[in-house]
Amino acid sequence: MRLKDYLKENRILAIALIIYLAVLIVDRNIFLQSLNTAWIYIEEMLQVLPPVLIFTGMLEVWIPRGTIMNTFGSKSGISGKLASFSLGTISAGPIYAGFPVTQTLLRKGASVANMTVLLSTWAVAKIPILLVEIQFLGVSFALARWSLTIPAILAIGYLTGKIVDREEIISEIGEIEEIVQKMLDRLPGHNCGACGYENCKECAEGIAEGEAEPDVCKPGGREVEREIKKLMEEQKTNIKS
Amino acid sequence: MNIFVLVLVPAAFILLVWSVLKDRDKTKKSLEVAKGMFLKIGGEIFGLLLLVALFFAVVPQGAIESLLGGANVFLSSIYGALMGTVLILPKFVAMPLAADLIAEGAHIVVAAGFITTLTMVGFVTAPVEIEHFGKKYTLVRNVLSFIFALMVALGMMLIL
Q1: Which of A86, A121, A133, B76 could covalently link to B70 via disulfide, CB atoms 3.0 to 4.6 Å apart?
Q2: Which residues contact B52 (CB under 8 A, 6 or more apart)?
Q3: Contact criterion met (CB < 8 Å) for A172 and B37
Q4: Residues A55, B50: C-beta atoms closer than 8 Å
Q5: pTM, whole model, 2 decimals?
Q6: Which of B53, B137, B148 sits opposite A152 (nearest CB)?
Q7: ipTM for the whole complex
Q8: Of B5, B30, B160, the CB nearest to A47
Q9: What does each of the 241 residues of chain A score in pLDDT, given as a tens digit?
Q10: Which of A183, A172, A173 is nearest to A208 (CA)?
């Protein structure tokens, strides 16, 4: 039953498995050959994804919002671009391994332009690629491509940041994040712990997830309770519409 | 296994040990975050990789070379960039392929456009990107990357 639910949520995987089953019935050779090639990719994914995700998890719990804002935020200027580029260039693995890290940074206050620089560098200008490129295509080819690609990455970052708004992305990817922020804005912010949570942010997450009641904040009293209930009503109508 | 993975895995391990020593609860939370992300991204990626592998098994050997090695540089460049957009290939497969293309007479622009779009523009990874950043961002980033990849490729012709 749980497998069925998982496949329902991961349609691409379900489709792939069905097609593979069909191929197995029709042509065993193609099936085996595909599986062989797939294993090369999957091996790479299994090597890279777990450590990268562990880093992302650490980032989530250890690095405060303010630090990320200062390093990668919209006011970080050239040093922010440099930081994004550096992080991308020492990365490993295909672009999809970069999505979770980049999303975490973005949620914690990084700018769209900088995160696009990070993703593009991750994809196309990381040191592992440079090494293989020099090996197969030669130094002059690699240098020429890189000297053109780096300005292109900056331009792509700049333009994407101009066209796509950070708030747009945040609200499109997660209703819950936005509501947590709004609740947090209404809580007193003493981080007193009277509600049983370590701080107000965790309390807001708890309320948003339905784990805690809207009246859980003692210092906030009636006032805060009313504000939070109002927010939850708004949220409900938003989801319906 | 490449050297960066050899660095990445021990580095993640050291960080984990440091984190456990400093705060067990936070470490537990961070691992839960990592696990959640893996479940979310892992299934989709796994499916995509299976499909791309099948594509390579079905497409006849040499088909890519003959398409990209054509005499018309302009057309082959467009093909190269489009193919790079649609496919995902590990770099140690893509680079030798590009080298073969040049050796067999394909223009340098074709190879450069192919490599740049291959890594930066992701048609296949778009569903995963949309899940992380939304539709608008995914569209804008990929379209811009495609345009700039072509410009990089054309620029190569001027430099080399």
Answers
A1: B76
A2: A38, A41, B87, B88, B124
A3: no
A4: no
A5: 0.77
A6: B148
A7: 0.85
A8: B5
A9: 578 888 887 888 899 999 999 999 999 999 998 998 888 888 888 888 899 899 999 988 888 878 888 999 988 999 999 999 999 988 877 888 899 999 999 988 899 999 999 999 998 888 878 888 888 888 999 999 999 999 999 999 999 999 999 888 887 876 456 677 778 878 887 888 888 887 887 788 778 767 788 888 888 888 888 888 888 887 666 554 4
A10: A183
